[in-house]
Amino acid sequence: MARLILFAAFVAAISVATFLGLWSGQFAARFANEPETAGVGEALIGGPFTLIDQHGATVTEADLLGHWSIVYFGYTFCPDVCPVTLQNVTLALEMLGGRASRVVPYFITVDPWRDTPEVMAEYATYFHAGLKALSGTPEQIAAAAAAFRVYYSPTERPETEDYFVDHTSILYLLGPDGRYVSHFSHTTAVDEIADRLARAL
Ligand code: NI
Prior knowledge:
- This protein is of the alpha/beta class.
- It has a single domain (2-200), classed as Glutaredoxin, CATH 3.40.30.
- Helix content is 38%, strand content 20%.
- The chain is built from 5 helices and 9 strands.
- The strands form 3 sheets. The chain has a 5-stranded mixed beta sheet with strand order 5-4-3-8-9, sandwiched between helices. Strands 1-2 form a two-stranded antiparallel ribbon. Strands 6-7 form a two-stranded antiparallel ribbon.
- β1 (50-52) and β2 (58-60) form a beta hairpin.
- α2 (81-96) packs across α5 (190-200).
- The radius of gyration is 20 Å and the shape is globular.
- Nickel (II) ion binds next to α2.
């Protein structure tokens, strides 16, 4: 009998531990996607990737070193959020004046099926002159998105051509050491982005 009670207690303890583990995992995942919540999970942002810029040059995580980086994932067919966000980054950098030369904005596609380097090259001309517009194979994009804890999912199978891509919409600010410093959401006002950049640089 004592043995049976011990066994029951053991099973109960395992269940509680499993539940707590799952719960804290979901908690962390939710915070990683929460635009205005800094601090939690920040060490998880960034990691190895290999992509190609709009001029055909290879870009890896090593290229993020030596300057401040603003990293944003989106896609050129995005009807509203992506162009507005990239426009906000462009305006914020213009507000910074000469100091903006220390910041490189990166736009990484979550639509590797349509966003070729050629498409990215044309799209980039609408925004900041220093914008690096990165694409890659579906596998390369998946790896980059995983490194930055970015979620994305086409609304239809990419073969159908007419589809949207749901995606995390966070602007990550990384320091010259390539590490996460802060983040903005697509709803952060231009002057707030500029102000926080000015204080961070
Ligand atoms: Ni978008």
